[in-house]
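Q: What does the assembled structure look like for these inputs?
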Amino acid sequence: MTPILDAQGLCKKFGAVTAAWGISIAVEPDTVVGLIGTNGAGKTTFVNMVTGYLKPDAGVISFKGRDVTALHPRQITRLGICRSFQIPQLYDSLTVLENVVVALGIVLRNSKRSPWARAPKVVPGHGTPVMAAAEKMLERFGLSQYRGSPARVLPEGVRKLLDIAMALAVKPEMLILDEPTSGVSSDEKFGIMDTVMNAVRSQGATVLFVEHDMEIVSRYSKRVIAFYEGKVLADGAPAHVLGDPDVRKYVVGGQVAMYASKETARA
Amino acid sequence: MRRPDSTLIALVAALLVLLMLGLLLPKWLFLFTLSLGKGLVVLGLMLLLRTGLVSFGQGLFYCLGAYAVGSLGQFFGIKDVLLLLLTGAVIGSFVAFLLGFLMARYRDIFFAMLSLAFSMILYGLLVKTAALGSTDGFNVAPPALLGRPIGGEAHQYALFALACALAFLAAVVMHVYFESPLGRLSPAIRDNEIRVEYMGASVRHAIHVKYVIAGALAGLGGALTAMTVGHIDPDLAYWTTSGEFVFVTILSGTGSVIAPFLGSLVFEVIRTYAYQYSPNTWQLVVGSALLIVIVFLPSGLWSVFWYLRRRGSS
Amino acid sequence: MREVVALLIDGIIYSSWLFIIALGLTLIYGVMKILNMAHGSLYALGAYMAATLVGYWLGHGHAPMASYGMLAVAAVIVGVIAGPLIERGLLRFMYGRDEIVLLLVTYALFLILEDAIKLIWGVDAYYVSEPYGMLGNLDLAGLTYPVYNVVLIAVSAVAGVALASVLRYTHHGKLLSAVIHDREISMAMGINVARFYLVTFTIGTMLAAIGGALTAPTVSVVPGMGVQVIVLAFAVVVVGGLGSLPGAALGALIVGLVRSAAVHYLPQVELFSIYAVMALVLIFRPKGLFAAAEVRKI
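A:
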């Protein structure tokens, strides 16, 4: 099967620090990939290169067969890759509903519909006009109760959900989540991931997520890629990668025993 | 059944009230018409403020619109009021379109001071241009509508009515615009540009468009003012003129399309009386009022209106 | 050839004037991230205070040469009174708010100060031209220049070098550089940022006042003389890069020379030339010639 995302030989240096040494990763469509690694290992740099925030010094990134290496984030989003942020990037003075409405409005504008269309404009991918689509999205993400609250007053977990919901509003073919559960309390994190994965499943998308929480990684990903010092250390099924001795040494650390036993218990 | 839009209703009501007031208080016609013209400039500034941008240089387009009217009348004998108004708007939008390529790259202080600088360029050019009267400027003859004179001492109400219609139209258009996807981008850009870009929209393009709209409105306002006052001079482009517009915009807030016109009227009325009684403290009053609004009422005076309304309905 | 020399000398004189004015503006911006729109009013305050003091001094028959000292005293008085008053009484409450909000606050301050000047000194013009002529004239390449202008150039050079030296070589100067880089971390390290802000603003005000005081003998001191200044100062500071001291010097030199050329060859474009240079620089270097590095946002 042709990979939906194909990164070959990505290199990136920041002065004396090399964040990427020839990273090559190919992602199959409709899968969930977890990216792990210590801080500074290169996972966020990889994500930033794929989403267009950074330009690689060398290497090529292809999305659906098309070279997207030098494109601006805006163009990459229009092509079908959307990301959420480690620190939720919201419109703080707008309400939750308005945040989603803005997102859907952009989708509508980008679809190049005729401005003279008589019928209320239907948002592509959602099948209904903007307001109805927004309400539906809030419902799907369990955010309806917050619809009138300004984004600024929301608790962290809700902010994360809204951030991800907006990324999904563009109905991307590939969704990249940057530390979706960081800063979220332990009781909330599974709820968030479940909500997100359900939403993804209903609209179909390939998911890449960067995580430090190994529980989340082992539960939700079908494939795990471990980064270390700008290189791919291991790549494969969660149990295999999380059990790999090098990964244990450089990435996961001492908690390995706990996860390993969970995996055997599940198997 | 959609709820009727309260702003549109309020606009229609305001239009009718204003037209009536014009009949009842003919001495105030000049002030009303002037406020409507300046209100157009403030409406454009309101759009920019909603986008998180403060332009200290709307005087540029305001002055261009005014001088366009004056020049067309003086050198080409063109008097048709609709044509003159259209020219004002077109010149404003054209120059804004050109400048927008540079301006849309900047924000905050840079945007404010660059816009100020460009308006001062025009000021500098006009002051040294003898053909346009240098610092004295020149007079503008009253225009005509379909051959019949409008404006001037004898036909003030006609020009006033036209101004009302113009303001009404502009307010309605902007109101609809604010509810549209591109209009909704304004507060989003103000709050989080990065997010807007990552959702696939071009912030620079959006700002460019809004700058053009603001330029058009300012040019239109300038054209109207030239015809109302009957005289134009380079001071229209001086940065303190632009500063006044900024003050009125902050005072009015960004809550409603009626606010710019209301705010302009309040400002003009207070200015007229303050100048009469104490010309050396007018700026002091304005400066202090601005400080009070910034410190205590960041959403402008309109927020007081909303607060009262909300208290009343609960 | 004579033309060119005259152009250069005029340019340098004007550049020195621009530099003194721009120095205070860029210093305040560099440290406090505030673009002080009231800078011109502080300049005017310096001029008015100088006019009053010099007028008093000479009017009471004191030694004419010492009237130059009065210019300095005027600047210090304005700096020491207006500076802390504004910083502690107003600006301090606005720190942490948007850059643009602070800009509007200083704009409000400008409006207030303009009228305050009218209320204190009235609307009539003041003339204190004695210090300007007292030092006699100088012959430079066959052209005559008042020695006063040389004093102006000297003062601006001294001010620039002094400030740069303080920043680079003294202990407090190094602390100030830390504050410029990161206010919060500096506070966390125990640096008294509030005191630095106060001192910086006072010095900036004093510099503006020096500009005004030095200008007072060369013009008629009238209300509104400061209104033009902010636009010129901004043009210089923007060309050089906001917050950069060497930038202010270079910006002043460039703008001064361009303006001088305009005045000599095509006077109609004097003002236009200044802002055209600014716009041109910005097209190629959007943040000015000596721009600070940008920090990554996400």
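Chain A has two domains: 5-89+172-266, 91-153.
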